[in-house]
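Following the same procedure, backbone shapes were mapped to integers, yielding the entry below.
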Amino acid sequence: MELSVNAPSKIKLDTKTSTPTPHDLDIVVRDERFNRGNTIARWWAGDAFGTAWHNALSATFPRGEAFFIEAVKAHREGANPKLAEEIRAFVKQEINHTREHIAFNKLAENAGYDIKTIDKRVEEMLALTKGRPPILNLAVTMALEHYTAMMAHEFLANPAHFESADTEVRDMWRWHAVEEIEHKGVAYDTWNHATKGWTKWRRWKLRSIMMLIVTGRFFKNRWQDSMNLLAQDGITGWKARWGLFRYLTVSPGVVRRIFPAWLAYFKPGFHPWDHDDRDLIGKYEGEFTDALLPAE
């Protein structure tokens, strides 16, 4: 990981608001760079199944996070000063995440994986969103941001996920997780701003329906992508299916562990900051005290 003496950029969000987003929340833009010149084992996560799952996730991030940025920015007009600052910080963090996952995806390709098929399918899926009401794109973003926040919490709270991983790759995922927790309420607060004229029932109905749709597509596509990557390792059939299922639901079991947080999304009046898990940020932020040179 390359380091410089530049300090992380902090955006303090202390304007009082009626949302559960903490008044003293700092969204820190840590302009860090990883995996430049790094070489990794093909199974950098310690086994084929964890490697396939995380490689499949990472392959979707560059285009996916660009989609998130545009979906949120499309609804920033008229936002109060606090939310406007949140959106700016969100955009800066997501731009850095995109850059770092492009670098990591190249590393995965150098290790012998073909992930271009995943990227191409994401591109084709996003093309289908063109022309539809922008509020639907925001609802999708809100649901997927809940997924990233749930997994971020789990990755930081449970070291088992990366205990056998390449050190620098593990640092990248933890850095990403810290920032996903910090900005986990931005898309949701933007949604509340954009739909302030809606009834509570209409808000709840659309976000709930969209979460169900997103969940089905998320697991169907990530499973397919992981199976494709496992096949590139010669792991197919029941061995591939059972191995990935066991990884996701038994040990370390990220899907099983995030289920309660997923279910909470459907609660009327839910907000991502109903669960304040900033202690996880504090636990790891000492590793990220130096920011790197500005993005190229």
Remarks:
- The radius of gyration is 19 Å.
- Residues 9-288 form a domain with the Ribonucleotide Reductase, subunit A fold (CATH 1.10.620).
- Residues 151 and 197 are 32 Å apart (CA to CA).
